[in-house]
Design brief:
Layout: H1 18-26, H2 36-46, E1 49-52, E2 59-62, H3 65-73, E3 79-80, H4 82-89, H5 102-113, H6 118-138, E4 145-147, H7 148-165, H8 173-186, H9 199-223, H10 229-235, H11 246-277, H12 279-292, H13 306-318, E5 325-329, E6 333-335, E7 338-340, E8 345-348, H14 350-353, H15 398-415, E9 416-419, E10 428-429, E11 435-436, E12 441-446
Parallel strand pairs: 2-8
Antiparallel strand pairs: 1-2, 3-5, 4-12, 5-8, 6-7, 9-12, 10-11
Helix pairs in contact: 6-7, 6-15, 7-8, 7-11, 8-9, 9-10, 9-11, 11-13, 11-15, 12-13, 12-15
Length: 448
């Protein structure tokens, strides 16, 4: 808590005009489609600290890399991730790693990290490659046109079920996909009542389905020697003898499966779109993968696919799976010359920071080479590129996600060329997770 008397009080923080507030209220239904425009309008009119319309909770948008660093790095340990995420998704994804703070979060993260170390990642990579090949081969019978988002969603859920749970969903893939769609949609529901037919009700029922599904497996996982993530979490034990309880494991698994397949689906779809719009980059990535000389990659190969790495990072800049990140301050703090009171919700926005022309050259342009060592635009500030968050809550599965995305694209470019019609622009829904509203139809043909 600062005692600097020169700081201006929160009452003087710029806020949206009544007309802007009315416009925001009227556009609430469009908030999932376009979060960026409203954020950018407020930033350009009012600066890096803007009071938002938040009902009983004081809310402030904080803009730019400095805000990201202060809030996400949280050196003073005053920003709670649990409190805002509990409000947003606490009834759907209770007690996931993102919904924990302080010592409890550190304790759980330490145990879960055992399942994401390099040896397990190497095993996961070897395990996913044959499944990727099997899925991609089925695309040959699609008649030249397919919906990329739908295909990736089926693939990533099968990968999550196999690698995370050690299960072959088979015909159950469609049912499980529907369950996770209901879970994610319910986290954004405005009407949170357990009434049949409502979006939120479907989310609650989906959570109950997942609890029953995982609970039936947990005893077997604890006593077995499986190599899937579920089994590893059931047996994971730190040097101090710390272990997770059954319900804790179930809560983590539901959240991890959602995050693993939804965010990866989002990124794969956006990469596919960008490579369709920029065939020169699609060919560059293809030649790089061919030069590797292997149909499927190992964990070590990931670091050799430089061009694909740049493409993935640029895509995550343009389409961050999580557009905004909320926290609630537990103490007063200062930013931008203002004193912001405790109990305020503060929001930092990857989707806005990633498009700030103060930090990126021509941010509206797809330009993977901005991540090359020669230019390294992402290194202009430690927190100008934050698709995986940052600080204590930096995504624990980010390396797994990167490997999975690159493993899929590496095989895909060697089997197919794909395109979209001239003039096509992907209609994006930006929240709760970035995805195309039309499931991204692509024209695809096999490489003989």
């Amino acid at each position: 808590m600062t005692t600097d008397d020169a700081l201006r009080p929160a009452s003087e923080i710029p806020r949206a005009t009544p007309l802007q507030m009315l416009r925001n209220i009227l556009s609430q239904g469009r908030g999932r489609l376009d979060m960026y425009s409203g954020l950018d309008r407020l930033y350009r009119e009012h600066g890096p600290v803007v009071a938002a319309l938040g009902g009983p909770i004081k809310m402030f948008n904080l803009y730019g890399p400095d805000a990201n660093r202060k809030v996400l790095l949280d050196r003073d340990q005053i920003f709670s991730a649990k409190r805002p995420w509990d409000l947003i998704m606490g009834r759907i994804f209770p007690n996931g790693l993102l919904l924990r703070d302080g010592a409890v979060h550190k304790h759980h993260r330490k145990i879960m990290h055992l399942a994401f170390q390099r040896p397990p990642l190497r095993e996961y990579t070897e395990q996913m490659n044959p499944m990727i090949e099997e899925h991609l081969e089925t695309w040959r019978g699609e008649g030249g046109r397919l919906l990329a988002f739908r295909k990736f969603k089926e693939l990533t859920l099968d990968l999550a079920a196999s690698i995370f749970v050690g299960a072959d969903l088979g015909p159950g893939t469609r049912r499980m996909n529907a369950v996770f769609e209901h879970l994610v949609a319910a986290s954004m529901s405005r009407v949170r009542l357990r009434i049949p037919g409502l979006e939120f009700y479907r989310g609650l029922r989906g959570r109950e389905f997942m609890i029953d599904y995982l609970q039936d497996l947990i005893a077997k996982k604890r006593s077995g020697d499986g190599r899937d993530l579920f089994s590893r979490l059931c047996r994971a034990e730190t040097e101090e003898g710390e272990r997770l309880q059954d319900q804790e494991i179930i809560d983590h698994m539901i959240f991890l499966m959602m995050a693993a397949h939804d965010t990866t689906t989002s990124t794969l779809t956006s990469i596919t779109y960008e490579l369709a719009k920029h065939p020169e980059w699609q060919e560059r990535v293809r030649e790089e993968s061919r030069a590797l000389g292997r149909p499927a990659i190992s964990l070590e190969d990931v670091e050799r696919l430089e061009g694909l790495t740049w493409v993935m990072r640029e895509t995550l800049r343009r389409y961050p799976p999580l557009p905004v990140i909320p926290r609630i301050a537990t103490e007063d703090f200062s930013f931008g010359g203002f004193r912001i009171p405790a109990k305020s919700m503060v929001i930092v926005s990857p989707i806005h920071t990633h498009r700030m022309d103060e930090w990126w050259d021509e941010p509206g342009r797809f330009d993977p080479e901005r991540f090359s060592p020669a230019r390294a635009e992402h290194e202009r500030h430690t927190h100008s590129w934050i698709p995986f968050g940052g600080g204590p809550h930096h995504c624990i599965g980010l390396r797994f996600a990167e490997v999975q995305v690159m493993a899929v694209v590496h095989q895909m470019v060697q089997r197919y060329r794909w395109s979209v019609p001239d003039g096509y622009e992907m209609p994006v829904q930006q929240a709760p997770i970035s995805k195309p509203r039309d499931e991204l139809p692509i024209d695809i043909r096999s490489i003989d």
